[in-house]
């Protein structure tokens, strides 16, 4: 994997995430009690032996920069190689939308690295994968480009790119649709190809007015480049809407998903270390089917919920089917159900707040109810 | 090397034989404590939080796990340019090779290191006490007294005083008048915490004398402190009134863990004075649909499908369905399988308790299962 340079794309559209992504990129969203979505892509890279990683910064980059800093927590603060931030193209020089202009502006990063391959991934996906397997597959396939896909086991919503393949795992068709039925082969926006191929696609597409790497770049070149498809059989969640975010978090309450994503000793998911105290459960605590991060103090009832670092649940309070981000405080006798609380929310004494399962109610950062 | 005003030296070479099975493979300072920490995290974090940026750790007994845990000091923010963490094991010289013959000898044998750092003040700490303390305030007192040495003390009940090293002091100034090691008739109830600040030049002189004294046991408490007092040195006590625990025995280690489970613990880990440790990369712990946790401290990566009450659970430990853990301390990676029962016990790292098996101690007689053992 020493021959691969990784590029992590943080340009996922966030319009379906409502208030959660108002001030942060999708990839900076807190996930599963202590992570941020981007942790998966970075950890997958380093765990696969990719030590040269470029991070394409999103429009709202403060949360990402504050989270990643030198990259030390991902073992990416290295004397040679390591992490490089790739800033967006200068505003004003190019009014085009899409991620392609930013890739074009940073093309040097891949071309001047002494690597043979580029692994280009979109960081809004949650999964744990060994990219070394993808490289081996790519070399064996003899194709120009390998993309990673997942055969979805249920209907998916939102903007989706899916593929058709032949028996030899070669891509025969790529199409864009709104939603995808169960059984579709959905692209995980992760591509492996030689550096010159990558540079050629980016350059020739951009210089002909292209905007989007996948749609204008890969799809337009599908007839001239041979593309193979690598199937990831494990768990995948794409964080592209509030419902998807809510569901993916709650999927982690399934011990199998929890184990697959986080407890693989060869491939741990790294994140920024906060040095929190272990969770303190007091006499009146009642907790079932929940993930609770260090730093929490629990005196009340918690069910089917995900509690991030430093959350407090008071005596007689009830937290059900909810996600409470860092430092939320549910005071005595308060009750929250089907709620996503952003950071530092306070639910004062005896207040009840309830959303519905298919449309969780979001309480924005620092609110006091 | 840039000059350092205040050097921290932590004595971490002790075997901790009274911790029996728990120190079979690790030195006492590396023994886990409080749901995610190791004992040595406390003095090191105190140093970091007190603004001490050069910290040396004297190791000797079974150092592998301790030194690999300490690494380059990054978890304590001690991977510093011009300072940081130093590990000082005993080493061979041209003519001789010695183990550290005592606490003072561990420092004496590293006088060349002290010369290299060239500090004005040195704080000597032991690697096996649980407490949080601001050493910068203690240094302020040391300077204000224009002292040669300042010794951290805390009040113990009079009836317990004979178990400690006791400092008799002048009430008005805090100047130490007499030191009594485990006295039958104590003259004061101020016990030494084993925390010493010395003016560096003063300490060096005494270490050089003691180092070549054949009749000395080379111990700070037994030899150096009495000699300094005899010579009329300016020695002051510095009173500490927070939580301080020597966790040198199984009972005291268990008790200190249980102290953390009180509704308002006598010792707040949650405050601004953070205790740093090397964090495992593990997810928030999972409590299953039939799990139950009360009065417990549980850390990352643990999986609780059974019942946990009045216990401390470390990262990556698991409690199976129908299993019951009470009044116990479960170290990292220990597995308590379905239906097993653990009561009044300390399970060391990676212990496995097979389905339905029982480990039951009682108060005052805590059961200890050594690292990697399988029960049932």
Overview of the structural elements:
The complex is a heterodimer of chains A (369) and B (376). Chain A contains 9 helices and 28 strands. In chain A, the strands form 6 sheets. In chain A, strands 1, 4, 5, 6, 8, 9, 10, 11 and 12 form a 9-stranded mixed β-sheet that branches. Chain A has a 5-stranded parallel β-sheet with strand order 14-17-20-23-26, with no helix packed on it. A 5-stranded parallel β-sheet of chain A has the order 15-18-21-24-27, with no helix packed on it. Chain A has helices spanning 38-47, 62-68, 100-105, 107-112, 131-141, 195-206, 213-218, 242-251, 255-262; strands spanning 4-9, 30-31, 35-36, 52-56, 82-86, 117-122, 125-126, 145-151, 156-165, 171-180, 185-194, 227-231, 237-238, 279-281, 286-288, 290-292, 297-298, 301-303, 306-307, 312-313, 318-320, 323-324, 329-330, 335-337, 339-341, 346-347, 352-354, 361-363. By secondary structure, chain A is α/β, with parallel strands linked by helices. With 376 residues, chain B is α/β, with parallel strands linked by helices. Chain B is built from 8 helices and 27 strands. Chain B has helices at residues 41-49, 63-70, 103-108, 111-117, 135-144, 200-211, 220-230, 250-259, and strands at residues 6-11, 32-33, 37-38, 54-58, 84-88, 121-126, 129-131, 149-155, 165-169, 176-181, 190-199, 235-239, 244-246, 285-287, 292-298, 303-304, 307-313, 318-319, 324-326, 329-330, 335-336, 341-343, 345-347, 352-353, 358-360, 367-369, 374-375. In chain B, strands 15, 17, 19, 20, 22, 23, 25 and 26 form an 8-stranded parallel β-sheet that branches. Chain B has a 7-stranded mixed β-sheet with strand order 5-4-1-6-11-8-12. In chain B, strand 4 (54-58), helix 2 and strand 5 form a beta-alpha-beta unit. Chain B is globular, with a radius of gyration of 22 Å. The mean pLDDT of chain B is 92. Chain A binds chain B through residues 32-35, 72, 252-253, 255, 258, 261-263, 268-271, 273, 275, 277-295, 297, 306-308, and chain B through 34-36, 74-75, 260-261, 263, 269-270, 274-277, 279, 281-301, 303, 312-313, 316.
